[in-house]
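fold-stage: in
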Amino acid sequence: MSTDNHIVSNSSQRRVLGVTNAPALKDKLSDLSCYDFDMVVCDGKVNGDELCEVQSSNPISLVIIGPDFTPAEVYRQIDRYRTSFNDPEFPMVVICSEKNRKYEADFLANGIIQVVGEAVAFSDIMKNSICQIIKNIRRVDALEQTIEQHAKATDTIETARFVFKNRDQANDISALLSKNMPEPTLICMGLLELLLNAVEHGLYGFGAEYKNDLINAGKFEEEIRKKEASLIDEEMFVTVDLEKNAAEYRFVITDTGQGFDYENTCVDHLNTLTCKNGRGVMMASHCFNTLSYSKGGRCVTATVKRETNTS
């Protein structure tokens, strides 16, 4: 696409779409391009036909909405792209300005998979985050093809227990268990956050401050790999118990770690956009009907109301 049509692209590799009306931010978004993905940048006025053309010629994997939009404009952009791409659950990230920080929880509740503070939005931290999101999208897409073949079988499960100890397994389990939920994508997101929290805080012992320091230093993934290797033979694991009755689905997630201060975590991360982690608890609270912690933070119970057939 040419700049005359508001689209700027650097190559034909896997693409992420950045949306902004600010010329300076267009350059910053474009500079996020790296070996793993190419940034496509457009303004908020691009028409629906052109969006469809972009998606059909070389599909977009992720949309990132810039920090120059008001909250109302953010919601309009969300609707435009999900409508144009014919996908009401299309993965999107919002870069949140300081003045919009109070809307972070609302953005997450509307299906935004990540809210990023403007202070770190145009850094290597953001590149690493985008790469991880794309990796997860690929994994879920591949996994869903397999799960689709067994959807009826998983729907008949009344109780089940899964045991795991790393993040890749957490991805697989969250996709599997959310398949027959009333809102599968929303539940998958919330469940994955809880499972990752159990692995990173429970098994690996990452405190919020320590994890934040690792992310800022660009050493988080390296430390994760070290932890995964060291726990292969140790008796440390996470269990997920699924219980289903006529009224609800119940997930009970328990880890063998030291627990964490979930009460302060739930409050503190509502008040900062500079911290790169700790939002899992907040986001998960918007994905389930109820969410409660016990055993010093080592156990969390989440429930989802079952759809009732009124016919």
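fold-stage: in (second)
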Amino acid sequence: MNIVDFVKKFGNLTFKQRPFDEVDSIVLCQLSYLNWRWIIPNIHANKRGLTIDKILKSGLDDKLCASTLSPRKNKKLLKALRGQKRYHHIVASDIWNVFDEESENQFFALTFILPNRNIYICYRGTDITLVGWKEDLNMSYDLLIHSHKEAVEYFKFIMLKHPRSHFYLGGHSKGGNLSVFTSFVMDKKYVKNLIKVYSHDGPGFLSPTFCRNDEYKEYVENRIEKTVPYHSIIGMLLYTSFDTKIIKASSFYIFQHDLFNWHINPKTGGLYYLKDRSKQSKIREKTFREWIVSLSKEDKIFIVNFIYEILGRENYTVLQLFSKGFDILRRIFKVQKTLTKHQQELIKYTIKYFINMYKTLFTHR
């Protein structure tokens, strides 16, 4: 049972009958990947948002789902939402969309106003552009990225509009990281109205001690709920200082990052929890951390820029990379000839490091 099945089975229960929980957070996070600019007012437009019911009646499914990672699955989710009252009165509003290739910044957020006037501030994860993925890679050497600053500014703006509202922060992938970061740095006056912070397979932070102080623990940490799938890769990158819940998921490895593959208990309607992650997930986590520690900041910057030079020069989307394998290999050999000896050794070292990781993974299958 996945989120589409959940909507079909539990979608007629109001939030009074079944209080907002982690599965609702996942549904809203998946909806955040749609092309809302076609229908929802920008944060600076000073206009009211639209209810999910009105959006579903707009007939814009094709536009809303176009150029997303899973257009077919997203259309199924919209179809399931029709005729189900649980989400119909939620208002989607205040989109903030930033895409700047020069500064390597991809950021998107929107706010969902629940029927009881609580608000869910939703940070979108990485989209299908390589600019977005480049910004994610930047977190391997920078504690703060542009999206962190955008996330805090967006939060402040929404709080000015809804100063007395109780609120959730949430997101999937990079969006989960942004929601946690915002909770770390928000003004203490807002904490009393913070209900919960959801990070769904969101990566951690470069520093293992980032905001691990007693004051943070007292006010925020017990309100953070981080969930990752059994074979988690993205969610176990870098460092996480709080407990993580493991979710049963379909498919394998990186494909378990897809929220449509997360399992939901058909009896309770809650997430299907497991006791621990897979051995492969733990090996990847250990290997990536060791690799990060073994390199200087300058070397990490070079490797990230090299990857982007190889993959991003033609403005490919993530989806197009799968059909461009030979082009990418040719570009690697071409670019490698222009590198210094140290840079060539660095690339060889990185490739060898991760080949050895996959050899180890194979022995633990």
